[in-house]
Write a structure and sequence with these properties.
Blueprint (H helix, E strand, L loop, with lengths): L1 H6 L7 H11 L22 H18 L3 H15 L5 H6 L11 H13 L4 H9 L2 H6 L7 H11 L4 H10 L6
Helix pairs in contact: 3-4, 3-9
Length: 177
């Protein structure tokens, strides 16, 4: 079943080659994720878009880890809230009004405030980015393969990158899931 899902949007001729070809065309979700470096001129050290992107990526990385769905959702909600702001993001953070925004709680607000005003990302975010195998992030670029399925592939078949995924497809291992 999972194998069929992987190949659903790609076609049926030479499936394995098409998956790899598709990866190179659809790396929007994949690639290597890194936390942005702060601006050196002073606060705000990070833009609204940078913070929203990092929050979304933290949510995805938490999903890859199988974290509490409510915690994961809070990062996605925070990302969406910040990315759709019309007001001056730096001013909202500097004035302490961040917690007034829907979807921004104390923990998330503290992490965002520290990043924007001090130029330092939360330690648990840094650890999450540094400890996630890059191959798992690259697999996010495969159509129909999201964090939950990647987690399943990693746990059940110990797949950590695209090459191992291709080998498992060719060997028929994925069909057992």
């Amino acid at each position: 079943m999972l194998r069929d899902i992987l190949f659903k949007t790609i076609g049926t001729n030479n499936r394995h080659t098409q998956v790899i070809a598709s990866l190179h065309l659809n790396m929007g979700g994949g690639g290597i994720w890194k936390l942005p470096k702060p601006r050196t001129k002073g606060a705000p050290h990070f833009s609204r878009n940078q913070v929203a992107t990092v929050l979304h990526q933290v949510g995805v990385l938490l999903e890859l880890r199988g974290a509490n769905p409510f915690r994961t959702r809070s990062y996605f909600n925070g990302s969406r809230t910040i990315s759709t702001l019309n007001d001056d993001f730096g001013e909202i953070v500097a004035s302490g009004r961040l917690l007034e925004l829907k979807g921004i709680g104390k923990g998330l607000g503290a992490g965002i405030t520290n990043a924007v005003l001090e130029g330092e990302w939360a330690e648990d975010w840094i650890e999450l980015f540094n400890s996630t195998p890059p191959g798992l992030i690259e697999m996010l670029g495969i159509p129909n393969l999201g964090p939950k399925r990647i987690k399943l592939l990693n746990e059940e078949l110990e797949i950590t990158n695209i090459i191992e995924l291709q080998e498992s497809c060719e060997a028929g291992d994925i069909e057992t899931l």
